[in-house]
Design a protein that fits this description.
By secondary structure, this protein is α/β, with parallel strands linked by helices. The chain is about 60% helix and about 15% strand.
């Protein structure tokens, strides 16, 4: 069971981190825009307060005219209140515009900051394989939005509450005067009553709302998990349907939503207790000043206008002093969202510090000075330091086609990830020719949303590919029917079969003519004839490209110049030795899992 003090300290650290992170909006290139919006919001708050004071003053004017049955003043008061209504409406619209634009620009800055940190150094991939933080996409999109929107609302609310409290306390003090009870004179008794009443209701709201923060955070986490489960089913719909996993997935969804419902019930219970006090306060608060002012009104020491003005001012003071308590539920939402955003930001730093567990070592991605691709003393570890591949030394010359084979679990795919810069854990160097263009072909190609012409040029180059070459390569890859649909917008990842997607990936790589092509089982969905055609096309269209091809299917050796074989051996350090038939072999001891 978590220590409450430790949990509170962790929460405080996360909130401080969120504050430091989010206030960067005021210190970077966006500071001028942030200051202008903030000053505009403050000006709107002051104008809104001036309008509220004018309305409060109108209460005295109108009710005194009503008490005196002065028809002319009543007509004037009607004109005044209409004018004040128009002014208040205009100020309210201006405040809404400034506040929401500030929220939008601030959220835009935060989203770009989090997205940049998530995407750079391939952290989005590393977080997907390490259990450091859940649902980063939900934290960026939903929690980031709530954290900023509610923060601006709270800042505006606190400023407005403070200004209103100061202003209307003065009104109460002047109008209410003093009250003598049993020979004791109490100056500013309405102010004292407002403060005491507000303190009592605020204490009750905060006491009832204290458990709400943790319950709302737990609910948000459950909601994010449920969304993830639904997304996972949608992305794997065909596989689930083919193997008949419908019932199992439905059972999992029911269980996941059961957690959502359970945590919602906890939130509902806490919120219901707060609502009980809030609704009672809404009825009682306006009556308190009338009851306290009634003796002075009946004694002729206050006019009806004074009494109604004092009652309105009392409510304003009470609302201002109770603002935090009345917004406890939204405060809980903000606390939960801010902590989730801060935890995501902290996870980025944690990724960078993981290499310290292995003495600060990491795989060095550098440039070779001779135009070759070189692995020098390359060792690959798990993120926890467990060794996978030890002291590999390999050299690949320009135009060489190298096949990488090995038993399952020997780290073939992890080697590819390291060469792509996705796997920093380990030591040694991976040196690539400077300015070399590199293309990676995974087993499951990625086809972005949009049309096929855009997908063929993904990632986007400054110069689009030649249309004739596009059609020729598609035809050569057995995708000639697609040449008539290059500009059709479809979810092509669902339209094309697995084999078609892999042939499409060959067309895309050959269009770009990269210097280095790194492939991880890119023909697994093709039959032997389709595989042969794609490999022959690769050799014909990319004769000068280095190729590192991870695969285990038979019949591929003849399309490569040599082979690197990863094997489990009981020796110490791994060695590189000339294998029979001109093949290369890297021996290694298996220290951990790693396909």
């Amino acid at each position: 069971m978590t220590d409450p003090a430790a949990r509170m300290n962790s929460s405080s650290r996360l909130l401080r981190r969120f504050t430091r992170l989010s206030l960067g909006f005021w210190t970077g290139p966006t500071r001028r825009k942030a200051i202008l919006f903030t000053l505009g919001l403050l000006a709107c708050l002051l104008l809104n307060l001036a309008a509220a004071i004018a309305v409060n003053r109108w209460n005295k004017f109108f009710f005194d005219a009503l008490q005196n049955k002065d028809q002319n003043l009543i007509l004037v008061s009607i004109v005044l209140i209409v004018t004040l209504a128009v002014i208040s409406a205009v100020v309210g619209v201006a405040q809404l515009q400034v506040r929401m634009r500030l929220q939008l620009r601030w959220r835009e800055w935060l989203t770009r900051t989090l997205t940049r940190r998530w995407m750079e150094r391939r952290r989005f991939y590393q977080l997907s394989i390490l259990d450091l933080v859940d649902n980063p996409e939900a934290r960026i999109a939903e929690d980031g939005r709530l954290a900023i929107e509610l923060f601006v609302d709270f800042a505006a609310g606190v400023m407005n509450a403070a200004l209103a409290a100061v202003s209307f306390v003065g009104v109460l003090w002047l109008i209410g005067g003093s009250l003598t009870v049993l020979g004791v004179t109490i100056p500013g008794y309405l102010v004292i009553a407002a403060v005491l009443y507000s303190a009592l209701t605020s204490f009750g709201m905060l006491l009832l709302g204290r458990p709400l923060v943790a319950r709302i955070e737990a609910k948000a986490a459950a909601e994010a998990n449920f969304r993830y489960e639904l997304t996972r089913i949608r992305e794997n719909a065909e596989t689930i349907a083919l193997i008949g996993g419908d019932d199992d997935e439905r059972v999992k969804l029911d269980a996941t939503f059961g957690q959502v419902a359970l945590r919602w019930v906890a939130v509902i219970g806490a919120q219901a207790r707060m609502l009980f006090l809030s609704n009672g306060n809404n009825v009682l608060a306006p009556a308190i000043p009338l009851l306290l002012g009634a003796p002075k009104y009946l004694a002729g020491e206050m006019t009806l206008g004074d009494l109604m003005q004092a009652a309105a001012a009392f409510v304003q003071v009470q609302m201002a002093l109770n603002w935090l308590a009345d917004n406890a539920l939204r405060l809980a939402d903000w606390f939960a969202s801010a902590r989730r955003v801060a935890a995501l930001d902290a996870s980025f730093d944690s990724l960078d510090k993981l290499s310290e567990r292995s003495g600060g070592k990491s795989i060095d991605l550098g440039f070779s000075d001779d135009g070759a691709l070189r692995l020098i003393g390359l060792s690959i570890t798990q993120h926890d330091g467990t060794l996978m591949l030890v002291d590999a030394d390999v050299r690949v010359e320009r135009g060489e086609k190298v096949l990488v084979t090995g038993d399952s679990g020997t780290g073939k795919s992890t080697l590819i990830r390291a060469m792509a810069g996705l796997w920093p854990w380990g030591s040694g160097s991976i040196l690539r020719p400077k300015d070399a263009r590199i293309s990676f072909m995974p087993q499951r190609p990625y086809i972005p949303l949009g049309n096929l012409r855009q997908a063929l040029n993904y990632p986007q180059d400054d110069t689009p590919p030649d249309p004739e070459r596009v059609e020729r390569l598609l035809a050569a890859c057995g995708l000639e029917p697609l040449t008539q649909r290059l500009d059709d917008d479809e979810n092509w990842a669902n339209v094309l079969s697995g084999g078609e997607q892999q042939r499409f990936a060959f067309a895309r790589v050959l269009l770009k003519q990269p210097d280095i092509i790194i492939m991880d089982e890119p023909t697994s969905a093709l039959d032997e004839i389709g595989q042969m055609r794609m490999m022959e096309l690769l050799r014909a269209e990319a004769p000068n490209s280095m190729v590192l091809h991870v695969a285990h299917r038979p019949g591929l050796k003849r399309f490569h110049d040599r082979e690197i074989h990863l094997t489990r051996e009981n020796g110490g350090a791994a060695v590189v030795e000339e294998a029979p038939r001109g093949l290369w072999r890297i021996g290694r001891r298996l220290f951990g899992k790693g396909e």
